[in-house]
Amino acid sequence: MAEDSLAVGAPQKLRTSQIVARAAVILSVLFIIGMWVYAYGFATRQAGAKISDVEWTKRAEKICIQRNGLLEKNAEAVRQITDGTPQAVGKGVATATDIVELAHNKIMEELPTLELDVELVNKFDELYRVYISDRRAAVIKLAGGEEAELNETLLSGSPVSSTIADFTRPNLMNSCSVQTQY
Fold first, then answer.
1. Element (H, E) at 158
2. For site-directed labelling of 14, which of 30, 80, 176, 180 has its Cα 20 to 30 A away?
3. pLDDT (tens digit, 9 = 90+) per residue, 66-87?
4. CB 164 within 8 A of CB 131
5. Residue-wise DSSP of 45-57
6. Which long-range contacts (CB under 8 A, 24 or more apart) does 130-139 make?
């Protein structure tokens, strides 16, 4: 009789550990399928940092285009008259930082009308102020004669300029992202 229960083709009873393992695999697959269904069927397609006030973003973009022109002129002037010392470079960086700050102040003179937009723009302002502060710290080092690079504050392991770009890209304000060449 013992031989009959081990016969080939006879159905085998599953152990508890096998049942638990199979259930875990099935639940994992169902969970992944559910995530994909949600992502493609129900989730919003709007970027988290996108603001609805298009006029505000267009205005900011125009200001940044003008700012970038001034930054280019400043960079060209610094290249022509600098002797290459950290102090001379620091003066050019200080002027560029002033240009960036003045343009940013002009952008922030008018805020969007919706409360959610204002929250996002205020976060953008806060991030840009951190970036400007980082530039000012580099200027101080350069003025002291140190060979200094811009050391940006890291947010979640990324430089603050990357987080600023996460705001400017979906809002079609690419000129307002951090210009690394100045």
1. strand 158-159
2. 30
3. 999 999 999 999 888 888 888 8
4. yes
5. -S-TT--S-HHHH
6. 130/160, 131/160, 131/161, 131/164, 131/178, 132/97, 132/100, 132/101, 132/104, 134/160, 135/93, 135/96, 135/97, 135/100, 136/97, 138/90, 138/93, 139/90, 139/93, 139/94, 139/97
3-state secondary structure of 94: helix
Q: In what helix (H) or strand (E) does residue 155 lie, and over which residues does it extend?
A: strand 154-155
Q: For the chain, what's the residue count?
A: 182
* 8 A C-beta contact, residue 142 and residue 22: no
Q: Which amino acid is at 51?
A: I
The per-residue pLDDT for range 119-144, each reduced to its tens digit, is 999 999 999 999 999 999 999 999 99
DSSP conformation class of 176: G
d(CA 123, CA 94): 24
